[in-house]
Structures are given as structure tokens and as C-alpha cells.
Amino acid sequence: MKIKYATIIVDEMEESVKFYRDVMGFTVDSHYDLGASGEITILRGEGEAMVELIKNPTDKPGFFSIGMEVDDLEATLNDLRSRGARVLMEPTPITVGLLAFIEDPNGVRIALIEHR
């Protein structure tokens, strides 16, 4: 999967890190405790892909969608499903290929796109 950068506001940092690490295959790069202002965890995926999780006491969790490019949507979706990912939309043909959606523990939609 390939993304460049996404920031997600979370309300449960540990659960969110576990999802992106154990289900999505990212690795924890760094973590910053900001005291009363919250905390930040940065995770890295393939290539330059990076997800920044922010727990902030004043912001509501959320982000509508993160787009990730995959080489084989069916295989990727089967792998993610076997690791506990919740599938919102099965592979659907679109103009540029196939599209599916999964959801993280905060309700963030993750678009998986296979270009053809």
C-alpha cells in the first residue's frame, strides 16, 4: 500500500497504533508526549508512506478518508480481513481500476485503490 502522508485525530492512541501496526503493517517511527496538549505517534509504511496519529483533548477524532494504492486489491483485502480489518465496501469497478473501503477503530475510512 502506498500513501504519502495523513494525519488522524484519535481518541484511543493505543488502540489506533495497534490497528495501523498489526492490521495495516506500519511500523512505529516515533512517539511524542506533549503533556496536557496530548500525544503524537508517527508510523511509517512502504516507501514514503507516513501516518501521524494525534490524541488531543480539544479535538474530536476523525478524518474522512485516506487513499492507499495497492498492487492487487483482492489479495490485499483478503490479507487485511484476515488480520481483523472491517470491510465497508467490497472491490468495485471505477474508471481507473478497482476501489474498496475498510475502516479503522476511529471510523476513518481507508480507500484501497488498484489502478488498471
What would you say this structure looks like, in words?
One of its GO terms (molecular function) is lyase activity. It comes from Methanothermobacter thermautotrophicus (strain ATCC 29096 / DSM 1053 / JCM 10044 / NBRC 100330 / Delta H) (Methanobacterium thermoautotrophicum). Keywords: Lyase. Pfam families: Glyoxalase. Residues 2-115 form the VOC domain. The chain is of the alpha/beta class. It has one domain (6-115): 2,3-Dihydroxybiphenyl 1,2-Dioxygenase, domain 1 (Roll), CATH 3.10.180.10. 18% of the residues lie in helices and 45% in strands. The protein has helices at 13-23, 73-82; strands at residues 6-10, 27-33, 39-44, 50-55, 65-69, 86-94, 97-103, 109-115. It has a four-stranded mixed beta sheet with strand order 1-4-3-2, with helices on one face. Strands 5-8-7-6 form a four-stranded mixed beta sheet, with helices on one face. A hairpin with a 5-residue loop joins strand 2 and strand 3 (39-44). It is elongated and about 45 Å long.
Task: Give a short overview.
The chain has 116 residues and is an alpha/beta fold. It has a single domain (6-115), classed as 2,3-Dihydroxybiphenyl 1,2-Dioxygenase, domain 1.
